[in-house]
């Protein structure tokens, strides 16, 4: 099963979702098409399993980051730098895959709901850490952290997905995102 998922990730990354057939996946995995169908009923089922794996991996990495930051007692700037760098590294491994899984794959409602819940949990997790930093404005922190998580996810994914179009060097990109987050997290909240 792991070999099939790993092969599917490579096939989708190389060929896209539409051309990422079960035959190509089976060949890449070194299994017969019959063996593939013993584990997965369709290409869609494989893609859904990859997306569920991505959701779980992202949540796990986020919890590891928070635990590391609590133990190491990094400054806010260092913590954000580690977060942005880690997300960028994660997205750089298979930059097209997440786009393919989220934008091209038909996602069942239960997986869509799991994705939304993982976003809410990520915001709560980041808020739990950022409460430890007195310089971070505390009002509406979970909503603020939802914006932080979405911003880091979107920006790092976009940067990693187009490595040939890098307008700015990687280190500069990380510094710019961290600067933006620091300003956002420490500014006075505006309520209109």
How are the elements arranged and paired?
Elements: H1 2-15, H2 22-29, H3 33-39, H4 43-72, H5 76-93, H6 95-104, H7 109-130, H8 141-161, H9 170-186
Helix pairs in contact: 1-2, 1-4, 1-6, 4-5, 4-7, 5-8, 5-9, 6-8, 7-8, 8-9
Question: Could you walk me through the main structural features you see in this protein, from its secondary elements to its overall organization?
Answer:
- Helix 1 (2-15) crosses helix 4 and helix 5 packs across helix 8 (141-161).
- The longest helix has 30 residues, at 43-72.
- It contains 9 helices and no strands.
- It folds into 2 domains: 1-41, Arc Repressor Mutant, subunit A, CATH 1.10.10; 43-186, Tetracycline Repressor, domain 2 (Orthogonal Bundle), CATH 1.10.357.
- It is mainly α and 192 residues long.
- It holds the Pfam family TetR_N.
- GO terms for molecular function: DNA-binding transcription factor activity; transcription cis-regulatory region binding.
- Keywords: DNA-binding.
């Amino acid at each position: 099963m792991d070999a099939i998922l790993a092969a599917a990730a490579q096939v989708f990354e190389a060929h896209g979702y539409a051309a990422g057939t079960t035959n190509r996946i089976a060949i890449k995995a070194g299994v017969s098409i019959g063996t593939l169908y013993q584990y997965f009923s369709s290409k869609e089922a494989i893609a859904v399993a990859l997306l569920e794996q991505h959701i779980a991996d992202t949540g796990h990495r986020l919890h590891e980051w928070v635990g590391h930051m609590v133990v190491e007692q990094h400054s806010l700037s260092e913590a954000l730098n580690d977060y942005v760098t880690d997300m960028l590294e994660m997205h750089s491994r298979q930059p097209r895959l997440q786009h393919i899984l989220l934008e091209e794959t038909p996602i069942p409602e239960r997986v869509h709901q799991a994705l939304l819940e993982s976003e809410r949990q990520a915001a709560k997790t980041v808020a739990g850490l950022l409460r430890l930093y007195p310089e971070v404005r505390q009002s509406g922190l979970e909503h603020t952290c939802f914006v932080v998580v979405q911003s880091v996810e979107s920006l790092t994914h976009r940067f990693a997905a187009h490595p040939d179009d890098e307008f700015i060097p990687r280190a500069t990109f990380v510094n710019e995102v961290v600067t933006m987050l620091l300003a956002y997290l420490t500014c006075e909240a505006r309520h209109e």
